[in-house]
Write a structure and sequence with these properties.
Helix content: 55-70%
Strand order of the largest sheet: 1-2-3-5-4
Strand content: 5-15%
Order of helices and strands: HHHHHHHHHEHEEHEE
Number of helices: 11
CATH superfamily of one domain: Histidine kinase-like ATPase, C-terminal domain
Distance between the termini: 56 Å
Number of strands: 5
Length: about 375
């Protein structure tokens, strides 16, 4: 602020003194103390141009018009007007600035008409030069304003995109937490029921159920800590996201609850993108969770087909599951469709429930 105002003050006063002594303006009034004050008021007004841009334009235009109207020598007396107008228009105060400039031109024209001495020295052509100069100033200021507006729009769009990505990430984490916690808590519930039953009849056989409860609870806590780390500090996951290679461990944990689960792979297994592998794992996990929670199944079959994509099928022999699409089914559908895949789920004839999904699975 001070540097700009100081430079303008030095140029307006110093260069105008120099211009008044070159002998080319003999009919202009010599510079006196009032002229110096008028030359300094504009630069001083620039100190408030960011806070009061329109008032600054008014002050610089008024003092410059008064200076010229009183017949003082020409020089770089418009510098303070240039800075004030540029700042005001760049910040969007267009019409108020236009009004002040128009008022200044009208006042200057009236001064030219009132003082024959001024007209004799600088006639209508000089006035037209000032009008043209102001037109250039307005054009440059408008270009700067447009660039500023576009820069602000780009910044706002980038911020909105960042917020959208953050919201999508939070939604993804919420889905991950739902799938993981629902799965492990369902297994804990089943194993707890088994353990309570065995404690009464065969206490020595309750250890496997209690061990499964311990493992499921530990895994739940680890997943919860990972999600909280991502939410709080954006840290990297403690371990890689699960994929198709981890289905064996998943199925072993489900079998510990008493459900017989078989895994079939068709086609030649291959590496798939991490997002596809994770989605396939979560779909199988949620489907098996629904089997343990919502059906009276004794067995389930998980089939993974490697074609031009990845086909997933989970079928149980229970009572048919739920007819309505709850949180689990909608989450599986969202996972598949977000990757450009498809999803189906529903009862099968003769009892049981089938979950089917197809995901794109080109080689990585």
């Amino acid at each position: 602020m001070w540097s700009t105002s100081s430079v303008v003050a030095v140029l307006q006063v110093g260069a105008t003194f120099a211009a008044s002594m070159n002998g080319r303006q003999p009919l202009r009034h010599p510079l006196d103390s009032l002229a110096v004050v008028l030359l300094l008021v504009g630069p001083l007004a620039l100190l408030g141009r960011e806070r009061w841009p329109v008032a600054t334009v008014g002050m610089t235009v008024a003092t410059t018009t008064l200076y010229l109207g009183m017949g003082y020598p020409y020089g770089p007396v418009f510098l303070s007007v240039v800075v004030a107008v540029f700042t005001a228009i760049r910040r969007g105060h267009r019409y108020s600035t236009y009004v002040w400039l128009a008022a200044g031109l009208v006042a200057l024209w009236a001064a030219y008409q009132w003082s024959p001495r001024i007209v004799e020295t600088h006639g209508p052509l000089h006035f037209l030069f000032i009008v043209g100069w102001m037109g250039v100033l307005l054009a440059v200021s408008e270009i700067a304003r447009i660039q500023t507006v576009r820069a602000e729009e780009r910044k706002r769009a980038e911020e909105e995109e960042a917020e959208r990505r953050a919201a999508d990430r939070r939604l993804q984490l919420a889905q991950e937490l739902h799938d993981v916690l629902a799965h492990h808590i369902s297994l804990i519930n089943v194993q707890a029921s088994v353990a309570l039953h065995l404690l009464d009849e065969k206490p020595e056989s309750a250890r496997p159920a209690l061990t499964a409860i311990k493992e499921a609870s530990r895994e739940s806590l680890n997943e919860l800590r990972t999600a909280l780390d991502l939410l709080r500090r954006g840290e990297a996951p403690r371990k890689p996201a699960p994929g198709l290679a981890d289905l064996g461990e998943l199925i072993a944990g489900v079998q510990a609850s008493g459900l017989l689960v078989t895994l079939e792979r068709r086609g030649e297994p291959r590496e798939v993108p991490a997002a596809v592998g994770q989605a396939a794992y979560r779909i199988v996990q949620e489907a098996l969770t629904n089997v343990t929670r919502h059906s009276k199944a004794r067995s389930a079959r998980v089939r993974i087909g490697y074609t031009d994509g990845i086909e997933i099928e989970v079928v149980d022999d229970g009572i048919g599951g739920q007819a309505e699409e709850g949180t689990g089914l909608s989450g599986m559908r969202r996972r598949a469709e977000s990757l450009g895949g498809s999803f189906e789920a529903g009862p099968v004839p003769g009892g049981g429930f089938r979950v089917w999904a197809r995901l794109p699975g080109g080689a990585t």
